[in-house]
Amino acid sequence: MIKPSNPNSEFALGGINHVALVCSDMQRTVDFYSGVLGMPLVKSLDLPNGMGQHFFFDAGNGDCVAFFWFTDGPDGEPVVSSPAALPGIGEFTSAVSTMNHLAFHVPAEKFDEYREKLKAKGVRVGPVLNHDDSEWQASPTLHPGVYVRSFYFQDPDGITLEFACWIKEFTEADTTTAPKTASDRRPRASV
């Protein structure tokens, strides 16, 4: 299984402990993440003073996906707090400081099987994207320049999720893009 594995010169990080997201209905979230995706619920608790709940699901490899449910939490706003569409289907930008999507690593040999399995469970999935360095950064076919294969879907609250598998090892040539700064952003249109 190909996965990036590079030493960190500053901290002995062991991956992601957990990512904490916010849901509107904890029972529906448990049904989806444990029932549909098969992720075991490993910790659940009520927050102090009736503020809400916090649940943790095992995402494999020692990593967890956690959810808060807040009694007084505001609703999300598509296009602001999450993308309006799945990548490969429509506009997938989201606001600064939001989480655009959460990708789960899956074995390359199970990729197509898992896509069909989600569809059979009634989950709407986007097209297979073979990510490469071409102009549109995706190819309809698998070729030697493809570095990751993926497809996207959403949870019941519209959180964009991805199943992805690395299929090419990275080299220094993969890190030559110069980082943009805040001054490179286009001005926002007035509302």
Strand order of the largest sheet: 5-9-8-6-7
Order of helices and strands: EHEEEEHEEEE
- The helix count comes to 2
User: How large is the share of residues in beta strands?
Assistant: 25-35%
Q: In this structure, how is the largest beta sheet organized? A: 5 strands, mixed
Helix content: 10-25%
Shape: globular
In the CATH hierarchy, what is the superfamily of the largest domain? 2,3-Dihydroxybiphenyl 1,2-Dioxygenase, domain 1
CATH class of the largest domain: Alpha Beta
Task: State the distance separating the first and last CA atoms.
Answer: 48 Å
- Which class of secondary structure composition applies to the elements? alpha+beta
By DSSP, the count of extended strands is 9
Rg for CA atoms: 18 Å
Q: Remind me, CATH topology of the largest domain? A: 2,3-Dihydroxybiphenyl 1,2-Dioxygenase, domain 1
Mean pLDDT: 88
Count of the separate structural domains: 2
Uncertain stretches:
none
The CATH architecture of the largest domain would be Roll
Keywords: Aromatic hydrocarbons catabolism, Dioxygenase, Iron, Metal-binding, Oxidoreductase
Family: Belongs to the extradiol ring-cleavage dioxygenase family.
Cofactor: Fe(2+)
Organism: Mycolicibacterium diernhoferi
